[in-house]
Write a structure and sequence with these properties.
With 152 residues, the protein is of the alpha/beta class. It has one domain (2-127): Rossmann fold (3-Layer(aba) Sandwich), CATH 3.40.50. It is 44% helix and 20% strand. The strands form 2 sheets. It has a 5-stranded parallel β-sheet, sandwiched between helices. A hairpin with a 7-residue loop joins strand 6 (135-137) and strand 7 (145-147). The model is unreliable at 138-152 (pLDDT under 50).
Amino acid sequence: MRFLVVEDDAPVARLMASLLPGDVEVRGTLQDALKALAATRYDVVIYDLGLPDTKRDVIRGLETLVAFTRLQRAKVLVVSGNEERGILQRSRAAGADDFLRKPVDVDALLTRVDIVTEQSRMVDICMAIERGAHRVEHGLGLGTRLAVAGGG
């Protein structure tokens, strides 16, 4: 699992990076995040709304990030201390897969990461079935196997 943490508060970014189960890269601005997304495929992007280069329009920054992440089917988990009314709904409308308020509870962060990564795995299964795969194996903790009937 590959994570991109987009957070300008270095101690918070280091803490998140130390908790996430997989390869983690950290960027402190939207522009740096977009460069990373252009060069590397990520499964989950954890995105702070209050970045230095998006202060004037946090939702437009999120929309830009989501457009880049959708090209690689990455999930976007927003973390924000923004107290603006309706920010959660606006973030979801802009394409965020989930939202956590700061200060972030560690257990809540890890639970949300599990949820969005499981959603990604389920999408992969559905796409494989759609492509006519004969057999999809998937480790859901139970060794689940899904066999698809088909010719060939």
